Amino acid sequence: MSMDTNVTTIDEFISTYPKDTQVKLNKVRETIRKAVPEAGEKISYGIPTFTFHGNLVHFSAYDKHIGFYPGSAPIVEFAKELEPYKTAKGTIRFPLDRPIPYELIDKITRYCVVRNLERKKK
Q1: Domain extents for the chain?
Q2: Minimal CA–CA distance to 28: which of 65, 55, 66, 73?
């Protein structure tokens, strides 16, 4: 799997992956969309990005995991729930060989909405 830097839409991006990974990526996208129906979609940094008063969350796929990029604050806020996963500053890795925690993605995305709204107020 490799990121195609020529893609311009999330649909194109997802279509470059194997079918089983596409299913998971589409479900991640759907989870984010349900959490924030008014969010915009774009490709930024070569990966799918949702926007809502600025960048909200990004995601991508790799050989062995789906990367979810909500920024650093959610990693701290949800540290207990994220213990089963590899994390780094602003990065969460969900292994492709285990169930993807879509409910957790939903919670983190909703947290990011509040974060972005608070930033907008400032």
Answers
A1: 10-121
A2: 66
CB 82 within 8 A of CB 16: no
Q: Is the dihedral of CA 96, 98, 102, 107 positive or negative?
A: negative
Tokens at 37, concatenated? 């129906």
Can you give the pLDDT at residue 2? Answer: 47
What is d(CA 75, CA 88) in angstroms, rounded to the nearest whole number? 8
Nearest alpha-carbon partner for 114 in 77, 69, 89:
77
Strands laid side by side in the 91-95 sheet:
40-44, 47-51, 55-61, 65-69, 91-95, 86-88
Q: Render pLDDT for 68-105 as a digit per residue (tens, 0 to 9).
A: 999 999 999 999 999 999 999 999 999 999 999 999 99
Phi, psi at 80, each rounded to 5°: -65, -45
Check: CATH 3.90.1150.200 for 10-121? yes
Distant-in-sequence contacts of 3-8, Cβ < 8 A, 24+ apart: 3/46, 3/47, 3/60, 5/46, 7/43, 7/46, 8/43
